[in-house]
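User: Some background: our group keeps a shared notebook of sequences we're curious about, and every so often someone picks one and asks for a predicted structure to add to the entry. Today it's my turn. The entry only has the sequence so far, pasted here. Could you supply the structure so I can complete it?
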Amino acid sequence: MGARSFDYSLHVPYAHVDKMGFVYYAHYFVYFEMARSAMFRQVGLPYMQLEERGVLLPVVVSHCEYKKPARFDDQITVTIHNLELRGPLFHVDYRVRCNGDLIAQGYTDHVCMSHSGRVLKPAKELIRLVEEDP
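Assistant: Of course. Here's the predicted structure to add to the notebook entry:
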């Protein structure tokens, strides 16, 4: 992908904070998904539209490294900064920042799949999303 990036911001809800007062680690994967869904909507390709066309993108690998904690009501920004297609695999990199500080980073890998579970070639819209410059 070229220099294109996508930002998604939110305030941490109280329900996402653990007993220590930190965002529970698994919620970062929810934030990744929220950013990814917002990116698809932003480029005019809502995920539901892909599903209606018979293209699913299940997560097959997810990874997150935690640098600093986020707390209730912190405004965090998830930046998608890299998209790649590797055959039927769709790779997405994320950075999560709070007050300018990198607090987490990670990635998800998705496979292009039909409703029946057959691996598919990437949809042309995904190819355009990865290859187009901003």
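Suggested note for the entry: The chain has three helices and five strands. The CA atoms of residues 18 and 95 lie 21 Å apart.
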